[in-house]
Amino acid sequence: MRVTVNEETPHYHGHRERLRQRFLEGGAEALPDYELLELILFLAIPRIDTKPLAKRLLARFGGFAAVLNADISALTDVEGLKENAAATLKLIEAAGRRLAKTEIFDRPVINSWERLVDYCRVNLAHLPRERLHVLFLDRKNAVIAGETQGEGTVDHAPIYPREVARRALELNATAVIMVHNHPSGDPAPSAADIEATRKVAEALKAIGVTLHDHLIVGRTGHASLRSAGLMG
C-alpha cells in the first residue's frame, strides 16, 4: 500500500509574503533593517527561514549598511551564509553605489551637494579602514572623476599632495574635493586632517587648481572643513 505524506508549508512562507506585500506597498521605509535584509536573503536562499541569518549578520557587523559593505570572506564566515548569498548582498551594495554615482557625476556640485554627500557616505562611511577619495571637477564645478588615492589603517590614510595635483593636471580639472572616512564613526577632523588639507591646497594652488573642500564621513554623519573654517 502506498502511503501519501502531506508536507506542511513551512511556517515562514506566510511571513515572507506579508513582508513582500509591506515592501511593495510602503517601500523600504515600511520594514526595519532585519526584515529588509531578510527579504534580500530570500532571493538567494529561498528554502530556509532567513530571519535568524539576517539577525546574525546585523549583530556581527553592526548595521544594515555595514553588512552590505563587508567583504565576501567576512560575510561567508557567518554561519549559514554561503558565497551565492554573499554575492547577492554585494550586488545590492554595487547597485546602491552606482545609483549614488549617477546622481552627482556631470552635474554642478553646488546644485547637488546633498547628493554628493550621500555618494561619499555610501562609498566610504562603513569601510573598516580609512580611505582617501578625491573628486575632480571641471570649470562648471561638475564632477568629472572620483578616484581612490590611498587606503590605510583604522585611523590613518596616506595623502600625497603631489599625486593629487598630478592627477588633477591629467584630468584637466580646475577644482578638487577631498573625502575620507573615519572608521571610528566620528567625523570630527583631527589635527592631522587639517594639516594634510593645507598641504594639498598648497600643491593644487601651485598649478592653478582650487581645493573646494575636504569632507570627512562617518557612520554618525559628516564634517566639512570649509564649513568649519579649517581650510586655512
In what range is the share of β-strand residues? 15-25%
Mean pLDDT: 87
From the N-terminal CA to the C-terminal CA, the straight-line distance is 89 Å
Low-confidence region ranges: 1-6
Helicity level: 40-55%
Any idea how many domains? 2
Biggest sheet descriptor: 5 strands, mixed
> How many DSSP helices?
9
CATH C-level of the largest domain: Alpha Beta
For the largest sheet, list the strands in their spatial order. 2-1-3-4-5
Sheet/helix structural class:
alpha+beta
CATH topology title of the largest domain: Cytidine Deaminase, domain 2
CATH superfamily of the largest domain: Cytidine Deaminase, domain 2
Taking all Cα atoms into account, the compactness measure Rg is 22 Å
| SSE ordering | HHHHHHHEEHEHEE
Per the principal axes of the C-alpha atoms, what is the gross shape?
Answer: elongated
Total strands: the figure is 5
In short:
The protein has 232 residues and is of the alpha+beta class.
What can you tell me about this protein's structure?
- The chain folds into 2 domains: 12-99, 5' to 3' exonuclease, C-terminal subdomain (DNA polymerase, domain 1, Orthogonal Bundle); 109-224, 3-Layer(aba) Sandwich (Cytidine Deaminase, domain 2), CATH 3.40.140.
- Helices cover 46% and strands 16% of the residues.
- The protein has 9 helices and 5 strands.
- The protein has a 5-stranded mixed sheet, with helices on both faces.
- β3, α9 and β4 (210-218) form a beta-alpha-beta unit.
- α2 (33-44) packs across α6 (83-102), α6 packs antiparallel against α7 and α8 crosses α9.
- The N and C termini lie far apart (89 Å).
- Residues 1-6 have low confidence and may be disordered.
